[in-house]
# Entry
Amino acid sequence: MSWLTNYVKPKLRKVLNPKETPDNLWHKCKSCGQMIFQKEFIANQYVCAHCDHHDRVPPKDRFDALFDNQSYELIDLPAVNQDPLKFRDTKRYTDRLKAARNNTGDEDAIKVAVGKIGGVNTVVAVQNFFFMGGSMGMAVGEGIIAGARHALKIKAPMIMMTASGGARMQEGILSLMQMPRTTVAVQMLRDAGLPYIVVLTDPTTGGVSASYAMLGDLHISEPGAMIGFAGQRVIEQTIREKLPDRFQTAEYLQEHGMVDMVIHRHEMPEKLGSVLAMLMSGSHRKKAAE
# Structure
């Protein structure tokens, strides 16, 4: 029996059973559940071809899609204290950072680049939700401030693409201090007459939505993005009322005046190019040049 078990059965199993499918070959849509070939899904900018659901996008793919001819330069961001509070929950904070860096290849939850969008020189900051939920810590704050300073230096508009669960709890009050610091950076752009445009992507919540995400001269969102401060369940338990359908979605916020435009991801570069050209013409350009 050992010959049949150890040799014949494995050979038959190898011939008759299909090979295992690699984990990264297919993507299952979070909205409709359809299976999509991973390469086609990425080529379609992480948008489901069946239901048009906009999934989350890494910073590199954001930059490649936005900048003219995929041409841009990354801006060097300041280094920050890695673990100022020596924080530990179920894991050490340093271990969480190491794991996130290994998984994403990025230093932290933000990247900033400069290039042309529709021919207009623009600074773009992108939050990476795949890095600890895009949480806002000191590195994110320093990244936004560095982006604003570079925009001031070259007299260019700045686009902030948000994707975050909120403040990074492992950095405590130091994380919350990034709210006023980034607010000051946005005000510096406004004083210089430089446009600050926010593109809200899924999700934008917590301290991020309570600071730089809602300070734009123009608020644009992708379809279906969840935008808010506290979660729907927490709000319902607090006010003891049932919230409306589509509450905290981009479309709901547009209907109630908190979002100016909801733009499909495929149309985002063209629309942003048009908006930037308009905002950087005439009086805006004149004030920025002073």
Q: What stands out?
A: Residues 138-154 form the longest helix (17 residues). The two ends are 89 Å apart (CA to CA).
